[in-house]
Design brief:
heterodimer; A: 115 residues; mainly beta; 4-stranded antiparallel β-sheet; 0% helix; 52% strand; globular; B: 114 residues; 5-stranded antiparallel β-sheet; 11 strands
Chain lengths: 115, 114
């Protein structure tokens, strides 16, 4: 079974621009969660989507948004980029069944650099 | 406030030594995962523990979940250079709106020297 895939793997943008990142979950997984990883803050939860609906949201400004399509693929958008948005953005997929054994599997991440 | 305290942050040891990484919280977790991450890659799942007191072994790695489901440990026996990496504990806090949200520890950077 193919793992979680993320595109693009690397991205360089300038301040003020916007960016869209894509995530394809493991086949059969309906939940996609997004995380931001930085050296200073570690891994922080952005939001989670299940069946095209956002079920949970972390403490990030409204510039960070996402959506999920009917095939469970998800996109994350960051508008008006700031230098501090430079990070590794990770998505993780799971069955989303809210059972204790439901485990998240991570993609390789998108490395975003904002200049 | 860090909900999951992971220690130590850095560990530098010689090949063949044993080590233990700890993950502690004041919150109860419905489950807890351990991941290993290589530079520039996403975390790779090592194990999921769900039952208080549970012990799982994966070759030279032993994982333990505390009886109260508030803490966990990862023990590596006879470490090898290939064990080098960032080790992360993560869990879903019991109750509340925790859909798809993993809370992560700060991570332990392990370096095993030949």
């Amino acid at each position: 079974k193919a793992g979680v895939t993320q595109t693009p793997r690397y991205l360089i943008k300038t301040r003020g621009q916007q960016v869209t990142l894509s995530c394809s979950p493991i086949s059969g997984h309906r939940s996609v969660s997004w995380y931001q990883q930085t050296p200073g803050q570690g891994l922080q939860f952005l939001f989670e989507y299940f069946s095209e609906t956002q079920r949970n949201k972390g403490n990030f400004p409204g510039r960070f948004s996402g959506r999920q399509f009917s095939n469970s693929r998800s996109e994350m958008n960051v508008s008006t980029l700031e230098l501090g948005d430079s990070a590794l953005y990770l998505c993780a997929s799971s069955l989303g069944q809210q059972r204790r054994t439901d485990t998240q599997y991570f993609g390789p991440g998108t490395r975003l650099t904002v200049l | 406030t860090q909900l999951l305290e992971q220690s130590p942050q850095f560990l530098s040891i010689q090949e063949g030594e044993n080590l233990t990484v700890y993950c502690n919280s004041s919150s109860v977790f419905s489950s807890l995962q351990w991941y290993r991450q290589e530079p520039g890659e996403g975390p790779v799942l090592l194990v999921t523990v769900v039952t208080g007191g549970e012990v799982k072994k994966l070759k030279r790695l032993t994982f333990q979940f505390g009886d109260a489901r508030k803490d966990s440990s990862l023990h590596i026996t006879a470490a090898q250079p290939g064990d080098t990496g960032l080790y992360l504990c993560a869990g879903e806090i019991l109750g509340g709106t925790s859909y798809g949200k993993l809370t992560f520890g700060q991570g332990t950077i392990l370096t095993v020297h030949p």
